[in-house]
Amino acid sequence: KFATVFFNEQNLLAFLRKYREKLTEKLNDIEGKEEWGVKIRCDEDGFRHHIVENDPQVVALDGEIASSSPGKAYLLKRKRQQLIEDVTGNNMNLYRELFMETFRAASCEVQANPLPPENPNNHEADRLILNLAVLIEQTGLQEFSGNLEKLEGEFQSKGFRFDCSGPWPPYNFSRITTT
């Protein structure tokens, strides 16, 4: 684990002897690979706008609202609001899974790191929806970059932004079990 402290040389040597096989296996696993970070953010207002403009159920309901009496229109608007929330949530989950699968296809391993707790005082337009660590063969960087560009091209208009950083040492993929 990164920044493990040993109090003396004897403790370090004892650890190395005890976990030699696991350490060697892990080092062989990460050889020739690098870690990249991918943070995916969503402009929730932009995403909702995309849903309102393009979802067939919402568009159909808008037509029904326009031709309804005021009382019925009021009830349909409430139904519309709930429909938008449901469709937004369902699509967000589908997109998260699609993003994960796209990065899995071009990498050795993908790890979803925890998201920070939501801060109600944060007034940023974009909300972090995925924080990924991606382990890539150095020879697979072009495929990874191509997949990232493809996702950006396809999903930017839907309110998504992809921030990539790296290469990093494979910290997220270098843990061994010591029990």
Question: How are the SSEs ordered, and which strands pair?
Answer:
Elements: H1 9-18, H2 20-30, E1 33-43, H3 44-54, H4 56-66, H5 70-105, E2 109-112, E3 126-137, H6 141-155, E4 160-168
Antiparallel strand pairs: 1-3, 1-4, 2-3
Helix pairs in contact: 3-5, 4-5
What brief labels describe this structure?
four-stranded antiparallel sheet; 53% helix; single chain; 6 helices; 179 residues; alpha+beta
Explain what you see.
With 179 residues, the chain is of the alpha+beta class. The protein is 53% helix and 20% strand. It contains six helices and four strands; from the N terminus they run H-H-E-H-H-H-E-E-H-E. The protein has helices at 9-18, 20-30, 44-54, 56-66, 70-105, 141-155; strands spanning 33-43, 109-112, 126-137, 160-168. The chain has a four-stranded antiparallel sheet with strand order 2-3-1-4. Helix 3 packs across helix 5. The longest helix is centred in the middle third of the chain and has 36 residues, at 70-105. The two termini are 14 Å apart. The relative contact order is 0.23. The mean pLDDT is 89.
